[in-house]
Specification:
Order of helices and strands: EHEHHEHEEEEEHEHEEEEEHH
Number of strands: 14
Mean pLDDT: 96
Strand content: 25-35%
Structural class: alpha/beta
Low-confidence stretches: none
Largest sheet: 14 strands, mixed
Length: 286
């Protein structure tokens, strides 16, 4: 296990995106994603995070009606060769950007997962991570992933989560204990959830003294209307960049390893944590 107090040698510029995909239109959404990644690269980003299920849109009726059309297929090695994603491959390769984009993935064994696809700087697409914590009716369409994942970009370690994963402190902590310097969370938060949206990911940053990059869908039609607010948090949970509750946005910030080192020196929870929280608990009358 990588020591959580190590830090990278140089800053990393990242982008988080809020945008509105079209339900069921993988090819069209890939074109939109390519343009957003291109914008991120033009602003100096080396990593761009797009919302949960962006390629098919987070729209359960469309996902249930046309699984074959809304899924992308992965091979045994987790690689994705779907030609609908070619514009995204080109944008990542030409811009020198590693993109993380949400998709519904069909695996060779028949499993269907909510995944974060990694489109690397060479234009290769692979399944980076399958969502472990499924929310509500997602369980009717998908199966959960069974492992965590860390993306390596330069000498930065970037833990991966998807939306509801980030509501569980232990998910972010597992990433931090694997040495993550930042936690990337493509998400889909519905209108009305603004308080939780703004609290969970700031808390994960402070809990684990790591940067957090939160992407979110925006717009849509009730009951699948999303609330934007994409954000990048520093290791104390302070906002480095945040989008409005509506409208498309590409938000860029530099993750500074000096800030990471200073925060972990001042707030040493990762080093001081107990392997168990005090053993057996005691109950007593009041």
């Amino acid at each position: 296990m990588t020591q959580p107090h190590t830090v990278p040698s140089s800053p990393l510029t990242v982008a988080t995106v809020q945008a509105t995909p079209t339900p069921g239109d993988v090819a069209g959404n890939a074109l939109v994603a390519a343009d957003l990644v291109r914008q991120a690269g033009e602003r100096g980003a080396r990593v761009a995070v797009l919302p949960e299920l962006f390629l098919c849109a987070y729209h359960p009726p469309a996902l249930a009606a046309d699984p074959a059309g809304t899924d992308v297929a992965a091979d045994q090695g987790g690689m994705v060769a779907d030609p609908r994603l070619d514009p995204l491959r080109v944008a990542a390769r030409e811009g020198g950007v590693t993109a993380l984009v949400g998709a519904a993935v069909r695996h060779p064994d028949g499993r269907r997962t909510i995944a974060a696809l990694v489109v690397d700087r060479a234009g290769e697409v692979r399944v980076g991570y399958d969502k472990q914590q499924l929310w509500g009716d997602e369980r009717e369409l998908f199966v959960p992933g069974d492992r965590g994942a860390t993306l390596l970009v330069d000498d930065w370690r970037l833990g991966l989560g998807i939306c509801y994963d980030g509501c569980f402190p232990e998910h972010g902590r597992a990433a931090a204990l694997d040495g993550a310097h930042a936690y990337l969370c493509p998400s889909g938060y519905l209108t009305g959830s603004e308080h939780r949206r703004d609290l969970y990911y700031a808390a994960r940053a402070l809990d684990n003294t790591m940067f957090v990059v939160f992407a979110n869908a925006v717009g849509g039609v009730d009951p699948w209307r999303f609330n934007g607010g994409a954000a990048i948090y520093d290791p104390e949970g302070r906002v480095l960049a945040r989008g409005a509750d509506d409208g498309t946005a590409v938000l860029v910030a530099s993750l500074d390893p000096a800030v990471l080192a200073a925060t972990r020196a001042a707030h040493s929870m990762l080093v001081d944590r107990l392997p168990e929280q005090g053993g057996a608990r005691v109950s007593m009358p009041g």
